[in-house]
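can u pls check wat happens w/ phosphoric acid mono(formamide)ester
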Amino acid sequence: MRHLISAADLTRDDAVQILDTAEEMARVADRPIKKLPTLRGRTICNLFFEDSTRTRISFEAAEKRLSADVINFAAKGSSVSKGESLKDTAQTLEAMGVDAVVIRHSASGAPYRLATSGWIDAPVINAGDGTHQHPTQALLDAFTMRRRLVGRDAGLGQDLAGKRITLVGDVLHSRVARSNVDLLHTLGAEVTLVAPPTLVPVGVETWPCDVSYDLDGVLPKSDAVMMLRVQRERMNAAFFPTEREYSRRYGLDGERMAKMPEHAIVMHPGPMVRGMEITAEVADSDRCTVVEQVTNGVSVRMAVLYLLLGGNESAVSHTRTEEN
Ligand code: CP
């Protein structure tokens, strides 16, 4: 694996290797000094053309825990406002010695273009592009599901075979939904999408999942329910159901959550819109893993960076060296 552009590019073995490596990386966070020497002397640029809280800070934390030098680039305040292209921006950064690029962009396909155009030599990691893909989000979600539904130690080497995962909400605009459908299918899970008819993408029948419009019917058959944010910034106002109508039919409140099996978890990639797709009661409940997902994101991104850039030594040997 030279780049990470799409969850669909990962085989089952690739994905399980990343999840297992992330378990090794999670041990680092439990130590007083949360650092490994793995990427000492390497420079990683976080190239963000679109706003982010979780992904940007999580990549930065992962890079620093692996001892990389970090350059944070935000399009706002840069020469992008003067018309500089993605190609010239990326070549400018590489000329300063960047060894890898993490990119978020509002245009679907921008990371793929950067990785395949020959503009730069550095590995490219997609941190979310338009409505297309967000592969590290899908990996951290799968990591969280595996820990919660299979078990932290029992999960090593395992996939999510037979687990029933429901994604609810604005599927049309969601790169998280696309990435999760691809990865969860690869890991053997059964995925169901629940959305208003206007927020279901054309061609969804070719995706490896079921589609339902009956949230109350699907909840009792779910091991994990992931609520998606309604992305008003990407939609025409005419598309938009009223907040009240949306919450009534597709929002998760305490009464609905009670229909889920006792072991089932509630997930959200963030940012949440409390009162819209999820009530505060559910978001703050013990069954909701939203904060855990953020914590797990650092370990998963450390694993991805390690496997793309870290050389041949095993993550285990690195973590053990630091422990000695
Ligand atoms: N889940 C996610 O991508 O959040 P941010 O937009 O805050 O990075």
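Residues 7-133+296-319 form a domain with the Rossmann fold fold (CATH 3.40.50.1370).
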